[in-house]
Amino acid sequence: MTTPRPRGRDRTAAIPVTIVDACLRDGTGGSPTAVVAETPELRLDDESRRRIPELADTSHAVFVATRPGDGGTAVRFFTAEGELPACGHGTVAALAYLAEQTGAPTYQVALEAPGGRTLHGRAVRQGGLVQAEFDVGPVALREPSAQELGLLLPALGLPLVASARVATLGRPRLLVRVPSRGTVEALAPDLPALAQACRDLDLLGCYAYAAVPAGGPAARQRYVARMFAPAIGVPEDIANANSTACLAALQHASGGLVAGLAVDMGDRMGSPATISASIAAPAGTEPPLVRVGGTARVSAPRSGA
């Protein structure tokens, strides 16, 4: 990570920030995420929260607040553009950070997320890394409209796709299945056009994915994906756990999810990441309970500048 540059007397420059590399692949890469612990003595306004990702040189920041009375823990997620109702790799980062704070080998918590949602998370510390996972809320799936496809596919540079669905988890996003890994890797979206289309359609962004060969019939299904979200100030996400949870829900709905799935992301950005997802509820439970997670590394805290 580069050292962020302070701007004048910005009060956020002195705020302690911990960088968590979330959703590592084989112990490397991952999505750098800024984690800030808010206390009764340190309460930020939303403008200051929006400044943290820029100062910390990360795409996202998660703010963790533990109440001194009952020990409840709330999380909020921000990019430079504003607050998000949910952030999967931010939740992985928060769980890893909290687990490191306890020092215990295993950790469980019910996180209070925006919108009154509760995220049941757990983490295991081992060898300097933290394996974290959590249960996401229900995923709503629907067919995209002709208008949505007419605006989004040209902006993505995709004249033809294998299938597409709009999935909502926190905010709606378009899941687009393309023929091959090569198609995913070659994507070069028109980011200004995609940002405008997503704003017009009130979508978070577009998650393009393709299946890749797995290691046998009992292995997790393997995918490669890229997530473009320029409308929220993230041209491309290194790791997007919530969209991966949406993919698991989609595969489950189609009857094709057996042993869970793993999605590789971030390679085009020089930071390989892997997210895992599975259906955690008993068969026949609707809507399905999706569990998503990844491996994280927690860095030493530093000031915001």
Automatic annotation (TrEMBL):
SUPFAM superfamilies named among the record's database cross-references: Diaminopimelate epimerase-like
Alphabetical list of InterPro entries matching this protein: Phenazine_PhzF-like
UniProt superkingdom: Bacteria
Record field: transmembrane: none
Keywords assigned: Isomerase
One Gene Ontology cellular component: cytoplasm
GO molecular function, one term: isomerase activity
Keyword Isomerase among record annotations: yes
PANTHER family in the cross-refs: BIOSYNTHESIS PROTEIN, PUTATIVE-RELATED, PHENAZINE BIOSYNTHESIS PROTEIN
Family: Belongs to the PhzF family.
The name this protein goes by in its record: Phenazine biosynthesis protein PhzF family
